[in-house]
Amino acid sequence: MKGCAMRTGWMLAGLVGLSAMAHAEDGRAGAGRYEALPLAGAEGGKGGGRALILDTRDGHVWIWSENELMAAPDGRRRYGSGFIYQGRLRPGSQPGELIEQLPR
Fold it and tell me: Contact 82/94 with Cβ under 8 angstroms?
């Protein structure tokens, strides 16, 4: 009897864990929705990391830069990390097709 009760307890704990994981995923963006691709540093830039970020569901594209020239709240210019929105793409219909941005 003790072994059966322990087995039932472990099964119940496993079901509760799986249920919690399923509910936790409801609020998330989904596995693989956002994909990041590393980019080479721009010539003449201050260096640092850059990545192209693609929203695979809606087609939005951003560039994340570790060291981008931007305006600070006080109006001065400074270097810092930031996202630069590039626009939205539409799905392609065949490999090698040139995809243009959709209007904003």
Answer: no
* Number of domains observed in the structure of the chain: 2
Instruction: Give the CA diameter of the chain.
Output: 74
Do 59 and 82 belong to one domain?
yes
Residue by residue, DSSP assigns 2-32 as HHHHHHHHHHHHHHHHHHHHHHHHHTS--TT
* Three-class secondary structure of residue 69 per DSSP: strand
**Could you identify the residue written with the tokens 């509760």?**
16
**pLDDT digits 0-9 by tens, 51-81:** 999 998 888 999 998 888 888 889 899 888 8
> pTM here?
0.53
